[in-house]
Amino acid sequence: MDDVREFTLVPFGGPNDTAVPPLCTRTHSVPGFLFSSGGFAGNLYHDYADVLVPLFASTNHLGGEVQFLLADIKDWWADKFRPLFRQLSRYDVIDVNNDREVHCFPRIIIGSTFHRAMGIDPSRSPGGVTVADFKRLLRRAFRLERAVASRSGAPRRRDRPRLLIISRKSSRRFVNERAMARAAAAARFDVRIAEPDNHTDMPNFARLVNSADVMMGVHGAGLTNMVFLPSRAVLVQVVPFGGLEWLTRVTFKDPARDMDVTYMEYNVSLEESSLRDLYPEDHFYLKHPYDVHKKGWDAIKTVYLDKQNVRLNLTRFTRTLEQARDLLPTP
């Protein structure tokens, strides 16, 4: 967390205090809210889990009457989420790292309150807001049209629900992605493949995700885009080989429930994993993944996340899509 700026609170006005506070150059009538986009922000999952969901839970009750003070700002990051900031504040975000004004506020709130990963505890949030309220704010911010998914898909799709496959370039790739798309089309899905990154046009991509009835991808930050799915859509998380159920549960399975998204899991078998091409069949990594876990996060990440791609069994993949279709609401 070396890239998160530290701030020091300096009190004035004590009985023996002779220090004189600096003169205000800008006086605000609303509270200031100080937060950072440093740390792990820039990874989409951490953008939401660490910054945006807690920010919403901490400030939505202010009704826009709050001045955001953003530390460690990255211009591309602030631009990406500006539509969301405009829903929460009536005022332009202040870049506190580079601003030279002396701002005076009636009060300042320092930092958001974190409840759980990608989640909100309504009993602890001002106004009792929930993740469902956060999703409604995103729909307004990015002008998303679809509120509820459908087994027949959107109008004019000829009874084909839309499948969005989240693609990856580096690790955890779908090696047979094109074959998957053909199999899904044969199973009467309207198929789209997309690969979001830090430079993806957020409003356009949000609308693409919102058009989907089923979204599928290997565990990774791209699945965070489930925040844009319509209610009762299906998220299929492909879990890489290696006993990673605990990781996939806390990151996406549990949050999906709060977002009114139906969750499915596709656990990759060793036969579907590229690890079998890297190691002999009796290798420790393949035989004893939970013992690898005991070596710590770096070992887990290196072996099962950074070095693994998947080639889904198309028969099993098609069966999973049929199950996902059955979970979608009828029109």
From TrEMBL:
- Sorted alphabetically, which InterPro entries does this protein's record hold? Glyco_transf_61_cat, Glycosyltransferase_61
Q: Cellular component GO terms, alphabetically?
A: Golgi membrane
Positions of the Glycosyltransferase 61 catalytic domain: 130-236
Q: Where in the cell is it found?
A: Golgi apparatus membrane
Q: Which UniProt keywords apply?
A: Glycoprotein, Glycosyltransferase, Transferase
Annotated pathway: Glycan metabolism
Supply one GO molecular-function term.
pentosyltransferase activity
- Keyword Heme (UniProt): no
Q: What topology does it adopt in the membrane?
A: Single-pass type II membrane protein
Q: Does the keyword Endoplasmic reticulum apply?
A: no
Any Pfam family matching the protein: Glyco_transf_61
Q: What is this protein called?
A: Glycosyltransferase 61 catalytic domain-containing protein
> What lineage is this protein's organism placed in?
Eukaryota, Viridiplantae, Streptophyta, Embryophyta, Tracheophyta
**Gene name, Swiss-Prot/TrEMBL:** LOC100284852
